[in-house]
């Protein structure tokens, strides 16, 4: 059975994801109600809506199931991780150097064990698999292996094996995906296919002391394709063992760094290893630090100082503490003295001295803190640091080895608490977690549970943060709208009062002008009547009365009709007179306006002229005097 803590973390994640999904649905409904209410005209600075990027970031967590995606150096590393993940032999036992081509495998939860092959277009492939012959516990190797290109059925090579099992790990919709074997140019397609429609928890297994060149290239691509998602790097032990043998065999020579201490630092700056001639055996090193056999084959041995690149790494520790004069012969190793090369794979670390040591608390274990006495771990750490999966240790942080390592010590005295205090400035609104390096394979279940907890928590926190940002924008919209309403409520009465005062002032001003200009107005009216009097009389004679019967002789039948004719003539005369007087008044105003406009135009032209001639001495008052 899988680790209870891992299933518990998966259950919590699914529960929180469902709650987040409910909040997301309510948020979308609320935003729609706000937008269709008509209370906002769209002129506000912010609006109640979810951006496409935000919606995608949230739905990728609440809609897609948590999925353990397993990558690795070799099919053997992947198979060991799968079997350890399920705590039973689901994959067959493979040799460490096995070169079989594994197909992509996806595990689902089901009531019983079933296996099917599915093509990319969701068609099931009918194939005579060996697993169909009877009940099974371990998947047959022949079914997992991709057929050769010469096979008649090429569709089988593209099919994905979908396996259902009634396993506690797969409850709550959890999936496990094992990446297939591939050619280098297919890696991007493979990664996209593995993490598609999934909330991935990435696991990478390796078996060598150093990551090979192809591994580094693939990890670089993986970081780009997954946007630097954290990865659990797992050191997989040899077949038949659950631990990595880090000591040389009995009687085998130990490297010159076996007893080095940090005090012997600041040396060894060359890629060529210096060995005393009295050493029982010698080891040749390629320029990149990998062990070179006498036949030109390359194995995995001690990494070179250049390959490590870390001042804390044992491979970069100096030779100062060695008594160089006491060495009888010190010479670089060349092809002539490489006959005694031991091609057997030698691991350089003690299995009890691993990065997953209990000296580090559960909450603080990560790849930012690592011991200084590991050969392979140091070089893998340096390679991962250069790839950007981990950060370089902060020199301001205290040495974890100098702190209390007791599990019962308070959180304030643990290295993790001290690192957390020192890295407060690195925290952002969105939560991020670090990649982990697991050297002790026996701790896989517990470390995976902790790593999964942090990774899934980061997904939830990031999605919740994005959703909270949309809520904040909506609240800001309401706050700004309320502020505008309050401002209008305060300012509008004052505007009305100001307008009323100005209207009263204008009325009094016009009344004063009319009183003071009464004689001029009378004269203007009299002059206008003299000018248009004859025209008004002629127009009145030809006036066509409305609603009055006038005979051909110009007579009316009643006094009422006479009064109606008088009213219509009066309105016509007053209208013509008002129009004429108003026209003259407007003409005088236009003349005054033209006078003002002309004066202002001349001032501006004068300012421009003076500014062109001598901009420093241009005076507005001089222009106004003109």
UniProtKB/TrEMBL annotation:
GO terms for molecular function: protein serine/threonine kinase activity. GO terms for biological process: cellular response to fibroblast growth factor stimulus; negative regulation of apoptotic process; positive regulation of ERK1 and ERK2 cascade; positive regulation of fibroblast growth factor receptor signaling pathway. Its main location: cytoplasm. It comes from the Eukaryota. One of its GO terms (cellular component) is cytoplasm. The keyword tRNA-binding does not apply. It is found in: Cytoplasm. InterPro entries: Dual_SerThr-Tyr_Kinase. Residues 400-415 have a biased composition (Low complexity). Keywords: Cytoplasm, Kinase, Serine/threonine-protein kinase, Transferase. Residues 236-256, 338-358, 391-419 are annotated as: Disordered. PANTHER family: DUAL SERINE/THREONINE AND TYROSINE PROTEIN KINASE, DUAL SERINE_THREONINE AND TYROSINE PROTEIN KINASE. This is Dual serine/threonine and tyrosine protein kinase-like. It comes from Plakobranchus ocellatus.
């Amino acid at each position: 059975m899988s680790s209870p803590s891992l299933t518990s973390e998966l259950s919590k994640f699914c529960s929180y994801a469902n709650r987040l999904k409910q909040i997301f649905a309510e948020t979308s409904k609320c935003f729609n109600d706000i937008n269709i209410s008509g209370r906002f005209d769209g002129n506000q600075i912010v609006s109640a809506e979810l951006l496409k990027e935000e919606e995608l970031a949230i739905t990728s967590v609440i809609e897609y199931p948590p999925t353990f995606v397993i990558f690795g150096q070799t099919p053997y590393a992947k198979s060991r991780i799968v079997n350890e993940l399920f705590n039973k032999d689901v994959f067959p036992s493979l040799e460490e150097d096995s070169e079989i081509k594994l197909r992509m495998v996806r595990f689902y939860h089901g009531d019983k064990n079933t296996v099917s092959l599915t093509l990319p277009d969701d068609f099931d492939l009918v194939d005579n698999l060996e697993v169909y012959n009877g009940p099974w516990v371990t998947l047959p190797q022949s079914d997992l292996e991709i057929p050769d290109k010469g096979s008649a059925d090429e569709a089988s090579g593209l099919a994905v094996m979908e396996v259902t099992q009634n396993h506690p790990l797969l409850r709550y919709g959890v999936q496990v995906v094992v990446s297939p074997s591939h050619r280098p140019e297919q890696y991007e397609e493979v990664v996209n296919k593995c993490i598609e429609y999934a909330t991935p928890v990435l696991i990478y297994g390796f078996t060598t002391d150093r990551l090979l060149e192809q591994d580094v290239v693939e990890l670089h691509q993986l970081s780009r394709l997954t946007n630097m998602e954290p990865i659990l790097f797992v050191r997989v032990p040899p077949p038949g063992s659950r631990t990595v043998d880090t000591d040389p065999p009995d009687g085998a020579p130990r490297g010159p760094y076996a007893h080095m201490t940090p005090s012997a630092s600041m040396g060894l700056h060359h890629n060529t290893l210096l060995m005393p001639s009295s050493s029982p055996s010698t080891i040749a090193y390629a320029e990149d630090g990998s062990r070179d056999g006498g036949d030109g084959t390359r194995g995995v041995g001690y990494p070179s100082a250049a390959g490590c690149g870390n001042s804390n790494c044992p491979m970069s520790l100096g030779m100062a503490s060695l008594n160089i004069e006491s060495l009888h012969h010190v010479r670089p190793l060349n092809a002539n003295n490489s006959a005694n090369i031991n091609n057997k794979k030698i691991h350089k670390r003690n299995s009890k001295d691993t990065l997953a040591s209990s000296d580090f608390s559960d909450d603080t274990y990560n790849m930012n803190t690592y011991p200084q006495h590991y050969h392979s771990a140091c070089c893998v750490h340096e390679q991962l640091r250069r790839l950007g999966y981990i950060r370089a240790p902060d020199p301001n942080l205290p040495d974890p080895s100098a702190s209390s390592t007791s599990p019962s010590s308070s959180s304030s005295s643990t290295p993790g608490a001290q690192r957390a205090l020192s890295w407060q400035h690195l925290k952002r609104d969105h939560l991020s977690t670090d990649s982990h390096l697991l050297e002790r394979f026996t701790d896989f279940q517990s470390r995976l549970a902790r790593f999964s907890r942090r990774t899934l928590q980061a997904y939830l926190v990031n999605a919740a943060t994005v959703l909270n940002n949309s809520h904040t924008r909506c609240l800001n919209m309401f706050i700004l709208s309320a502020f505008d309403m309050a401002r209008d409520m305060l300012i509008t009465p004052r505007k009305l009062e100001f307008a009323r005062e100005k209207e009263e002032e204008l009325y009094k001003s016009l009344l004063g002008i009319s009183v003071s200009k009464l004689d001029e107005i009378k004269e203007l009216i009299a002059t206008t009547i003299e000018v248009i009097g004859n025209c008004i009389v002629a127009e009145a004679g030809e006036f066509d009365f409305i609603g009055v019967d006038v005979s051909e002789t110009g007579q009316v039948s009643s006094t009422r009709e006479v009064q109606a004719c008088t009213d219509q003539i009066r309105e016509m005369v007053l209208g013509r007179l008002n129009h004429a007087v108003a026209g003259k008044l407007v003409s005088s105003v236009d003349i005054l306006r033209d006078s003002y406009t002309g004066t202002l135009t001349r001032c501006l032209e004068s300012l421009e002229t003076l500014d062109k001639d001598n901009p420093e001495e241009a005076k507005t008052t001089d222009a106004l005097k003109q």
